Amino acid sequence: MRRIYEPQDLIEAEMLIGMLASEGIAVHLSGRHLVGALGELPLGGLLGLLVEDAEALRAQALIAAYNAAQPLAADEPDSIPGSLLC
């Protein structure tokens, strides 16, 4: 397995895991259980997404595209600029 990305937090990690899973890529999240010790451990590098070596380049490309995506102008409601309705 190869570490392909370091998410900022568990929320980002779970979103990326879901996106990669929808593309058929199995992902392991390392460091999930270390997040509770943030006062005792260094902040960076605790979380990591790991995939099989054969899927690493594809997964990195999908994450890069995901992170570069911008919301469509039509997705923003006129009544509340700057907010998305879910």
Automatic annotation (TrEMBL):
Where is the DUF2007 domain positioned along the sequence? 1-65
Please report the name of this protein according to its UniProt entry: Signal transducing protein
The organism encoding this protein is: Pseudomonas kuykendallii
